[in-house]
Amino acid sequence: MNAPDLADKPYAVTERIAPLVRRVLARNPSPFTYTGTQTYVVGDGHEVAVIDPGPADEEHIAAILAAVGEARVIAIACTHTHRDHSPGAAPLKARTGAAIIGCAALTLRDDGPRADAAFDPDYAPDRVLTDGETISGHGWTLEAVATPGHTSNHLCFALVETGALFTGDHVMGWSTSVVSPPDGDMTAYLASLARLYEREQDTVYYPAHGPAVEKPRQLVRGMIGHRRQRERQILRQIEAGHHTIGEMVPLMYKGVDERLWPAAGRSVLAHLLDLERRGLVKRENDSWTAIVTHG
Predict the structure, then answer these.
(1) Using CA atoms, how far apart are residues 232 and 217, in angstroms rounded to an integer?
(2) 198 with 236, same domain?
(3) Looking at the structure, do residues 178 and 56 belong to the same domain, yes or no?
(4) Does any domain span residue 273?
(5) Which residues, by range, are in coiled-coil regions (predicted)?
(6) What is the mean pLDDT of the chain?
(7) 291, exposed or middle or buried, with CB in 10 Å at 0-12, 13-18, 19+?
(8) Alpha-carbon span 88 to 85, nearest angstrom
């Protein structure tokens, strides 16, 4: 997770990035949101959808409305309910009358270190989409693709007409997603990555943070490989006598900003929980040991 260059970023500006797709960047950069949350306006006709309205920031809400122009917002779609994604839904609904349609409500106390990953307690969807359900307007159709892992309620949205997939925080070009228990689940995350890899119809990813992904299946294959490499690294750490997350992280994340180590520890925990489910490790209090099997 490298710090972005924020000079001349197009905050509060409408960017046309593809047929049927415009983008507005929120002014909420951080080590975990990169340059900020990217809100997408889908549709070129008189009906549009807004994906991930972002923070409830007046500058950003005004910029979304400017991007919408004279069109009618018929859906406000959220990929998940972390507070850098969904709080803008309520004020946008109040201004447009549009329904909030997308992921289910989820409010948990996140015991991890990511302040920006706190859940939005005020998110109130008018309609929850399940996997494969669609919303449509003039000239466009969005299909929900269930991708739990980063959060249990995470959805991606496929723009059927163009092959674009709005990936929220599930897949990002600039960084791997943080998977932080108790709600973040590495087993589900890896399964969701495998599912996206199988979707050959997706030709480009538009994530909530960072640049568009032009070779999506190649990136997803690399992300799966990265996660498998991490789990092998964890098993080697245990074999070397490092049995706690506090011992593992400084060795596994050398060269990474130490301020990010607590978040890295959450991903290590997520991997350990996945390995535990698979019968490869066991724990006693905060200590993890490998399970040796004899075939």
Answers:
(1) 23
(2) no
(3) yes
(4) yes
(5) none
(6) 92
(7) exposed
(8) 7
pLDDT range class, residue 295, cuts 50, 70, 90:
very low
Q: Is residue 5 part of a domain?
A: no
Banded model confidence at residue 222, pLDDT cuts 50, 70, 90? very high
Structure tokens at 266: 């959450």
- CA 182, distance to chain mean position in Å, is 16
203: number of Cβ within 10 Å: 13
CA 14/CA 5 separation, integer angstroms: 20
Render pLDDT for 73-126 as a digit per residue (tens, 0 to 9): 999 999 999 999 999 999 999 999 999 999 999 867 555 554 345 889 999 999
User: Which of 194, 214, 234 corresponds to the end of one domain?
Assistant: 214
Let me know: does 117 contact 154? Beta carbons within 8 Å. Answer: no
Answer whether 264's CB lies under 8 Å from 252's CB: yes
| Residue 138, C-beta contacts closer than 8 angstroms, at least 6 positions apart | 43, 45, 46, 47
pLDDT digits (tens, 9 = 90+) for 156-176: 999 999 999 999 999 998 888
Contact, 53 vs 196, CB < 8 A? no
Domain count, the chain: 2
Identify the domain boundary among 173, 190, 214.
214
Among candidates 149, 89, 76, which has minimal Cα distance to 122?
A: 89
pLDDT digits (tens, 9 = 90+) for 127-138: 999 999 999 999
Q: Which of 185, 172, 158, 162 is nearest to 277 (CA)?
A: 185
Same domain as 115, residue 94: yes
Which pTM value belongs to this model? 0.92
- Beta-sheet strands, E only, within the chain: 15-18, 21-25, 38-42, 47-51, 72-77, 99-102, 127-128, 134-137, 140-146, 155-159, 164-168, 204-207, 281-284, 287-290
- 231 and 189 co-located in one domain: no
Structural domain that includes position 285? 226-290
Identify the DSSP state of 137: E
Neighbouring C-beta atoms of residue 292, cutoff 10 Å:
7
Beta carbons of 172 and 209 less than 8 angstroms apart: yes
